[in-house]
User: Fold this.
Amino acid sequence: MTDIGMILQKLGGTLVGEVVPKLEGDYAGGQAGMVGMMAIMAGEAWDGAADRLYREVEGMRALLAAGGVDIKTQPDSFKLFDLTALRNTLADELIELQTRLETSDDEAAKALNTQIWGFFLAGAAERMPNPPQFEEEAG
Assistant:
């Protein structure tokens, strides 16, 4: 886990585990709990963001190549901003390809169209935050 991810998760864990119980029944307790959970989820998302973006870029490249689109663009760096920009550019290209494939009666085009839809569905599911897991209190 990166330092930022660890910091966010520790901060969130402290808020949820130590601060919220002391504010129980108070509006501030609910707010601290929400901020804590958001920090935990943000830490998890931060930790896997570059890996997810890299895999999305490579997956889009493969699908575009299968559709006859040759994309040679490389990210300027592996910073999240640059990977996101490249992913967005490739997504636009992939959506354009998918739109063309939807009107084709060719079986190979239909199969690639199905793969593209599956790719986008899997990517959306992967970006969904996981709710934090908390230990149940004894007793």
